[in-house]
Design goal:
Blueprint lengths: L1 H29 L22 E4 L4 H12 L12 E5 L3 H10 L9 E4 L6 H10 L12 E5 L3 H9 L4 E5 L3 H16 L5 E6 L7 H10 L2 E5 L6 H8 L6 E5 L7 H7 L4 E5 L4 H10 L2 E6 L6 E5 L9 E5 L14 H5 L6 E3 L5 E2 H8 L4 E4 L2 E3 L2 E5 L7 H12 L7 E2 L1
Parallel strand pairs: 1-17, 2-3, 2-4, 4-5, 6-7, 6-8, 8-9, 12-13, 12-17, 14-18
Antiparallel strand pairs: 10-11, 15-16
Length: about 400
Amino acid sequence: MRSLWLALGGLLVAAVVLFFGANVLYADALLPRAAPAAMPRLESNFLLNTVNTTRVGGDDPVETAVAVAQIVYPATEEENTPGAVVLIRRDDLPSALVAASRVQHFPINAPLLYVDEDGIPDLTRDELLRLAPEGVAADGNVQVYLVGDIDAVVQEEVEALGYKVRPLIADDPIALSELVDDWTSTQHGDHENVVAVANLDRPEFAIPAAFWNAHAGDGLVFVTDDGIPEETIEILERRGSGPWLYLFGDETIIPEEVARRLAQYGHVQRMPRNDLPGISTYFAGYHDSGEDWGWWVESSAREFGWGNADAGRNAIFINVDGPAGWANALPGTTLSHMGKHAPAIILGGDGVPDAVESYLSLLKPYPTAPQEQIVDHGWVIGGEGTISWPTQDALDLLLEGHLTAEPAVP
């Protein structure tokens, strides 16, 4: 009996200690702390992303090309594996424009990756192996396309990885454009009658056209300050009904005399701007459609340009003035082809140009119901050396609908 009372007493003491100890701990928890308690750092919170923008890549164009490919093609299932990969040089913009405009689209379905003239960077090689492209059934199961002036040793390296290769090789961009145009007709069964026109002496003004063509697969030809090359005339004359020609740049970019000569071969329209932010935003909102050619049941329609001028849109922000120049921007065409099908918006320098701020004001979000809103999104291509964090933050505010974002440039 004595032992029972001792046991009960011990339980009572333990209960009292537990009760008062818990209250002391509870009271201590209510006291204000001198500093916030330690919190685990989530790595994703320190990436350069915002609610309305997603940054992809860095300031090295090889890295950026791989980063874009990994965003678009996880390569875990048949549906998210590319049909092929397009390899281009990072020092040859005109040839890269041909590749994005005439090869990247369906039926090829490919990202752009960079090689050197006579070798493959390790990062590109690793990505080729990761992607394991399925092959393009309409082109004999080709898995890798080499586009531009690329040495045969690169083809040998790719074939050593076990891939089937089609070289689309020419030693100058104008000859390449004719070669690729003829080859592309075998994939589509005809020559595309809608054609973007770029000045080879100022090819950067056609970068927005390459993003559109990656999405739509339309044509591309080159002119120069001095006139129309013979290869370009051959390309245009293949369009039996007369092509629709869209010139990227005003008279200071593509001379009026060249435009008049082009009118002998087809219908001419201009993107009338002479600065990169201006031409990219103009084209982002531009849309042309109507009858193309043919009669009645054989009639064909044409459509050219994004026509994005309202909420619920996406944009791909690029800067060709960064440390890697255009090479860090062009892989973003894959996001026009298979991503959110967005146009390229060229920033130029640091800050948000007036043309870009004016264009984004057209995309201002608006609510549609108490729990729903039409919103916008922007891909930011490159690292902070290419597009700074303050610029990205300003873009985020503009996409949110705040029309006085800072910093801005004249």
